Amino acid sequence: MKFYNRENELEVLQDLSGIPDKSVMAVILCMRRVGKTEIIRQFFKDKKGIYLYVDNEKTPKDLIEEFNKTLALEHSLPSYVKAYSFGILGNIYNTHYCIWFA
């Protein structure tokens, strides 16, 4: 897929990711077929972060389970650590720089 004319969008994401000592969550909303996923892929080419695809077919439970799996894979976490373990998550993201996209 060709990727062009998205410098402004990538610059906004770069600015968000440059906020020191903070985890950032960006939500990208737009009509279908305009390249939202490709912008995220291009941005993450040389960065570490978590990408979670959200659509109206997924239930909140599905999203939490997907987030838990992604988080565990990204950070090699034990199976008992879940998204609702906020104390543990806080420790992880205080020591590991991360960008969140949903």
Automatic annotation (TrEMBL):
Keyword Zinc-finger applies: no
One function term, GO molecular function aspect: ATP binding
Alphabetized SUPFAM superfamilies for the sequence: P-loop containing nucleoside triphosphate hydrolases
Keyword Repeat recorded: no
Top-rank taxon: Archaea
InterPro entries reported for this sequence: P-loop_NTPase
UniProt keyword annotations, A-Z: ATP-binding, Nucleotide-binding
Transmembrane segments: none
UniProt-listed PANTHER family: ATPASE
Stated name of the protein: ATP-binding protein
Source organism of this protein record: Candidatus Altarchaeum hamiconexum
